Amino acid sequence: MTAEEFVAAFAAAAGAPAPTEEEVGQLLDLAAVAAHSSERIAAPLCCYVAGLTGRPAGELLALAREVAEGTGGPET
Length: 76
Prior knowledge:
The chain is mostly helical. 71% of the residues lie in helices and 0% in strands.
C-alpha cells in the first residue's frame, strides 16, 4: 500500500476527506519546519494540533514558520 492509499483509506475510515495534493505538501512542510526547528517528535505532534484547529494547512505552515523564527506564538 502506498502512502497515498493508506492516507485515503485512513481518512475514509475516520470519516474525513483525504488531504489534497497541495495540502499534503503543506503538511509535509509543516512537519519539516517543526522537526528541524525543535526535535523530530514535534513534527507529528504539530500536525496533530494542526488537525484539531480546522484551519487551512497553508495558514498553519505560515504559523509554524513564524514560531520557528521566533515571530509567532502567544508571547508576540
